[in-house]
Structures are given as C-alpha cells and as structure tokens.
Design goal:
Elements (H helix, E strand, L loop, with lengths): L1 H47 L4 H7 L1 H24 L3 H16 L1 H48 L1 H6 L3 H26 L2 H25 L7 H43 L19 E9 L8 E10 L6 E3 L6 H8 L7 E6 L2 E2 L10 H4 L1 E4 L6 E5 L2 E5 L3 H7 L3 E5 L7
Antiparallel strand pairs: 1-2, 1-4, 3-9, 4-5, 6-9, 7-8
C-alpha cells in the first residue's frame, strides 16, 4: 500500500509538471511563431519597397500579396508546430526506444524496422507533395489576381456589362485551385494509412513473438515486461505519428518558404548610383533614340522603338494615342520607374540613371497624372482651363487615352 501511494503521488507530480511545461511551451511557441511571422512580413515589405516596377511585374501584385499572407502563415504554422511537437516527439521516441532495448533487445528490433520503413515512405511523400504544393500556390496567385482586377475595375466591369465574364474567370481560377489542392492532398493523405498499417503490424508482431518468448522455454520474457513493451510501442508509434503530421506541414511550408526566399533574394533592377545628381538646371526632357521592353532582361518585344523626342522646359505636351500604344510606358521612363533598354532619357541635360532614386530625384520633381474617368477632367486649351463632365459611357475610354505631365517645383516638367 505505501508503494502504491508513493508511485501514485510521483506520477501525479510528474503529470502536473508535464501540464505546466506544456502550457509554457504552447504559449512561448505561439509568441515565437507570431513574432517570426511579423519579422518576416516586415522584412519582405521593406525589401519590396526597393523594387522597381520591373521587379513587381516579375512577381505580380497578386503574387506578392499571396507570399506575404498565405505563404508566411504556412511557414508560421510549421514553425509553431516544430517548436511544440518536433522537439518533444523525438525525445519521447528516443526514451521509449531506450527503455524497449533495456527490456528485450530482439523484440526492440521491430521498432527499428518500422522506423526505417516509415522514413522511406515519408521521404517519398514529401518529395512528391512539395512539387504539387508549389503549383498550388501559383494558383493562389491567379485567384488573387482575378479578385484584385475585378474589385479595382468594378466600375468598368459594370459599365461594359462584363459580370458574367468576370464570374466565369473567377470560377475557372477557383476550379484550378481546387483540382491542384486535391492532387496535392491525395499524396499527403497516403501517409496516414501507411502509419496505421505500421502501428498494427508492430502490435501483431510484438504479440506473436512476445508470447513465444513467454511460453517457450527457456522463458526470456515475463508478462509484465510484455505489457511494458506494449506501452512503449504505443509511445514510439504516437511519436512517429506526431512527426508525420509535422512532415506534412513542413512539406507545405517548404514550397511557401521557397517563394518567400525568392522575394527576399530578388535584387532590385534599379540601383541608386554611388554619386547621385541631386539638382537639375531646368525641366527639359530629352528621349535620345530610346528603345524599351518590359522584359526584365530586355529580350522581349519592344514597347517603344527609337523614340527621339525633345521637350523644352515649360512646354505643355499632350501624349495622345490608343490603349496600349505606350503612353504610360513613355511617361514612366521620365521618373525612372523603369530603365530604358537602349538609348537614354535626360532631364535637365542629366541622364535619369544618374539621379537619386529615393530622395530628391525626378520622382520628387515630376508628377505623373493619368485621367481617372471617375472624376471630372480638367482640360487646358491654349492656357485656358475648362472643367467639364465626362459622359459615363465615354469616361472609360477617355481615361485610357490621356496622360498629363503636371508642373512641379524645382523646374517645370
């Protein structure tokens, strides 16, 4: 009786400590993972601020949003589960294996065979699922792009009665995401039946061989030792099941982590010069045989070809053309939102590539204003300003066809 009370109180004390440390581990793990996610999002956001338009075009706005939300959340969950389970489960596994070997070394070899088998299956599952989850997150980008385009241009969609087309496009993106996710999950769920097969195979093998060691002479195992082995085998296999869940989450987070690293490792295509020009004598603009392509390496089709344009300081210039003819591309080169592929753009006689990108440069001196179509337009004719409403049926066409360079201090542009 004293032994029962002694060991009972000892077990109660150990269970209390386990509860206390489990609570601390869960709380601190949650704080660490959320802090890690916050730092990761901050680092990505700060790095994105250095991107040129060419870098943003490479990833797309929807892709960057997905990486800062869904991908970071996947990494955060995997990090939290790693702190809470991937540390405790291996320790439980190792302690149970050691105890099994102290009871009977031959029967303990069953566990080693099971571990090797599960390790091979997990490696195969991770390798197959990682590729499929990478494709899944690309479909997330397409889904977010569809939502972003529809919401930002909702007036255009309604004006041209394109609701059915946008709905069909969104349904297509959702269906593609569903199909890719199902394909990825079909690989991941293969882990659970393999785990259960291994668990029950180990129990059957342990029961059959353990009974032989108890019954057949010379008896090398007692009934109590076999019962202890059953307890340890459940601890071992529960630890393996917990680790397998971690591996599934790590599989998803590997794809997300790779996409996050792509953003953090991206080098801005526009770099600030060592000795930037801070002032310009006037607001003249010169395009010296400029060729421009949106392709990052400059190997795509030219959007602007051999542009040779000279604008004197103080002149008011209207750039008029159809949608997609390159008006906005031309104006973007003045503020160095993109770099020219060939030729040079000069403001005040200075090449814009020698200008300060971040402070005091052309982006401060020049304002680029495109007609909105959702507000009344201000049209200047021979120095006289006329304010007139734009008809709703025409406003979506007007705002695509007019780009205005607005005067701003430090010399007029």
């Amino acid at each position: 009786m004293p032994a029962i009370w002694k060991y009972g109180l000892l077990m109660l004390l150990v269970a209390s400590f386990s509860l206390l440390f489990g609570w601390f581990g869960g709380t601190l793990g949650a704080e660490a993972s959320t802090g890690f996610a916050a730092n990761l999002r901050r680092a990505m956001f700060d790095h994105i601020q250095t991107f040129s338009f060419a870098n943003i075009d490479k990833f797309s706005t929807a892709g960057l949003v997905t990486r800062m939300t869904t991908d970071v959340t996947n990494v955060q969950n995997a990090f939290q589960m790693t702190l809470r389970i991937a540390v405790r489960a291996p320790l439980t596994f190792l302690c149970s294996i050691v105890m099994c070997f102290t009871i009977n070394q031959r029967l303990s070899l069953i566990f080693l065979i099971a571990v090797l088998f599960l390790g091979g299956v997990l490696a195969l599952v991770v390798n197959m699922a990682r590729k499929r989850f990478s494709a899944v997150f690309e479909k997330y980008d397409a889904l977010n792009a569809s939502v972003q385009e529809n919401v930002s241009a909702i007036r255009v969609v309604k004006a041209f009665v394109r609701e059915e087309h946008e709905t069909s496009k969104f349904d297509h993106a959702v269906t593609n995401l569903y199909n890719m996710f199902v394909r990825a999950e079909k690989v991941v769920v293969f882990n659970n039946p393999v785990m259960m097969l291994t668990v029950y195979t180990c129990i059957i093998a342990l029961s059959w061989l353990g009974a032989r060691y108890i019954v057949l002479p010379p008896a090398s195992l007692t009934t109590g030792q076999l019962t202890s082995l059953f307890s340890y085998v459940m601890s071992v296999l529960m630890s393996l099941m917990m680790l397998s869940m971690i591996f599934v989450m790590l599989t998803m987070s590997l794809a997300s982590g790779r996409r996050i690293c792509e953003v953090l490792d991206e080098v801005p295509s526009i770099q600030n010069p060592e000795n930037p020009v801070m002032e310009i004598p006037d607001g003249s603009i010169d395009f010296d045989h400029v060729n421009f392509s949106y392709h990052a390496a400059g190997s795509g089709e030219y959007v602007l070809k051999d542009i040779d344009l000279h604008i004197r300081s103080g002149e008011t210039i209207g750039i008029i053309g159809g949608t997609g003819c390159g008006k906005s591309s031309l104006v973007s080169l003045v503020s160095r939102l993109y770099d020219v592929t060939e030729g040079a753009v000069r403001v005040g006689g200075q090449d814009v590539r020698a200008d300060d990108v971040y402070a005091g440069g052309n982006r401060d001196r020049a304002a680029r204003a495109a007609g909105d179509g959702q507000r009344r337009e201000h049209v200047s004719v021979h120095g006289r300003e006329k304010r007139r409403p734009v008809p709703r049926r025409r406003e979506q066409h007007v705002h695509k066809r007019l780009v205005v360079l607005v005067p701003y201090d430090h010399g007029r542009i």
